[in-house]
């Protein structure tokens, strides 16, 4: 049995009820066999066993009182996965689906994603099964304060720096930062995604979506193509999808779909800047559903309970959640002539779907590379906080563009070095892994 397969079998044996974590680990490990042929020192040091076991897992109860005076209890957690190249860094997700397996999958992905940014940040992730949807601001505040009343013991500007994720936006970050400051008496860059004016960075809300498109631009350029004039199917209508759409429009692309958990809209005329502004108001302020779009723009069609991958498009930009492109969606994308996919969500393409897309030679930007823009700008926010400085939006956006361009080059170069030219999935895994492995070797058995 190969070292890689043996290491993966031990992961499954140790945590048999964590399928999302197994998927994330195998999608990396299956590409690393040639690395161990070239670097047997990694095998001798049992790097894989150490990389796939978190340095620390913290779980805790989160009691809070709702607006009716009833006591509610949720579970909070933080997985501090790997700190070889810097303090733990990764988001907090508040969603009913959150469990330890999902947080571990996200944290494991974060290790390699953060390594690709070339910034000195390790990998971590956290969250709770709390659902902020339908809750009042006061209920969300009480929950966030209770959550931070335990989490504050384990984080710090040079220890672990959480950020937002699904269900955690500027409101939640603000409440948690306020409670951290109250409990510790410290104003420090312990959370990123803060509001501008009290430690937040310009371009942070836009960063993941913008970075997803910058990576797409580089992929297309490698084939002599561009975004201009391309029909783009986007899933999601939250922060990532909104700013992905904004940047696609700025490059002359045509956005034809957006979605939420209820279904998707198809607008044959294209979602332009004014229509996107309406969607952003719907989602960010009125907190409505995407189906309301067709009442405002009756030329569009709403497909309830469906995903947008059956629509004819040149480019697909999955920006909602994990495993949203499955076999059926992948077959439809190939049949309809999709030429490129850039992942904005975390692990949005199932292994079976990826096999179909890869066989059809669809250009593919994996999440750990293509959606690294968010954490890249989070690290820039950390730099600004450490220096008590604020940068212009132009400076931050320029640095983000440089980082995403550099990530694409790292992935392409690593793929070519290991005889997988053009395979950015393999390239991302190898480039990120080698950086972390070298740091772990240098630091001994810790």
Which key terms come to mind for this protein?
five-stranded mixed sheet; Rossmann fold; 446 residues; 12 strands; 18 helices
Distance between the termini: 27 Å
Which regions have little confidence, pLDDT < 50, spanning 5+ residues? none
**Major β-sheet, in short?**
7 strands, mixed
Strand order of the largest sheet: 9-8-7-6-10-11-12
Helix content: 40-55%
Kindly identify the CATH topology of the domain at 207-361: Rossmann fold
User: Which H/E pattern describes the elements?
Assistant: HHHHHEEEHEHEHHEHEEHHEEHEHEHHHH
Shape field: globular
Any idea what the CATH superfamily of the domain at 207-361 is called? NAD(P)-binding Rossmann-like Domain
Q: What is the tally of helical segments?
A: 18
Strand content: 15-25%
Q: Residue-averaged pLDDT, rounded?
A: 97
**CATH architecture annotation of the domain at 207-361:** 3-Layer(aba) Sandwich
CATH class of the domain at 207-361: Alpha Beta
Helix-strand makeup class:
alpha/beta
Whole-angstrom Rg: 21 Å
Number of strands: 12
């Amino acid at each position: 049995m190969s070292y890689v397969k043996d290491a993966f079998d031990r992961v499954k044996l140790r945590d048999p009820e964590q399928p999302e974590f197994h998927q994330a680990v195998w999608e990396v490990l299956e590409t690393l066999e040639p690395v161990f042929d070239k670097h047997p020192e990694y095998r001798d040091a049992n790097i894989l066993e150490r990389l796939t076991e978190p340095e620390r897992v913290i779980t805790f109860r989160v009691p809070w009182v709702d607006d009716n005076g009833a006591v509610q209890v949720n579970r909070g957690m933080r997985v501090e996965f790997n700190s070889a190249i810097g303090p733990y860094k990764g988001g907090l997700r508040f969603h009913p689906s959150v469990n330890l397996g999902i947080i571990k999958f996200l944290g494991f992905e974060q290790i390699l994603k953060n390594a690709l940014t070339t910034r000195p940040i390790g990998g971590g992730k956290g969250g709770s099964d709390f659902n902020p949807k339908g809750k009042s601001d006061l209920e969300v505040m009480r929950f966030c304060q209770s959550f931070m009343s335990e989490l504050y013991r384990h984080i710090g500007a040079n220890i672990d720096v959480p950020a937002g994720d699904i269900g955690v936006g500027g409101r939640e970050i603000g409440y948690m930062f306020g409670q951290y400051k109250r409990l510790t008496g410290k104003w420090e860059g312990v959370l990123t995604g803060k509001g501008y004016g009290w430690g937040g960075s310009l371009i942070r809300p836009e960063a993941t979506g913008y970075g997803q498109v910058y990576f797409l631009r580089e992929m297309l350029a490698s084939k002599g193509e561009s975004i201009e004039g391309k029909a783009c199917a986007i899933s999601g209508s939250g922060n990532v999808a909104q700013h992905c759409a904004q940047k696609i429009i700025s490059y002359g692309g045509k956005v034809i779909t957006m979605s939420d958990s209820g279904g998707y809209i198809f607008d044959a005329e294209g979602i332009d800047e004014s229509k996107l502004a309406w969607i952003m108001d719907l989602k960010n302020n009125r907190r409505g559903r995407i189906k309301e779009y067709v009442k405002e723009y009756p030329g569009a069609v709403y497909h309830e309970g469906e995903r947008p991958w059956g629509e004819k498009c040149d480019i697909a930009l999955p920006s909602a959640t994990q495993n949203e492109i499955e076999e059926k969606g992948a077959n439809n994308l190939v049949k309809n002539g999709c030429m490129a996919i850039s992942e904005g969500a975390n692990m949005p393409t199932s292994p079976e779907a990826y096999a179909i897309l890869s066989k059809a030679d669809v250009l593919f930007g994996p999440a750990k590379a293509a959606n690294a823009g968010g954490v890249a700008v989070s690290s820039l926010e950390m730099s600004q906080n450490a220096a008590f400085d604020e940068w212009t939006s132009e400076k931050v956006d320029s640095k983000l563009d440089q980082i995403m361009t550099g990530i694409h080059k790292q992935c392409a170069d690593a793929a070519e070095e290991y005889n997988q030219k053009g395979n950015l999935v393999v390239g991302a895994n190898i480039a990120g892994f080698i950086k972390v492995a070298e740091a772990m070797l240098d630091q001994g058995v810790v």
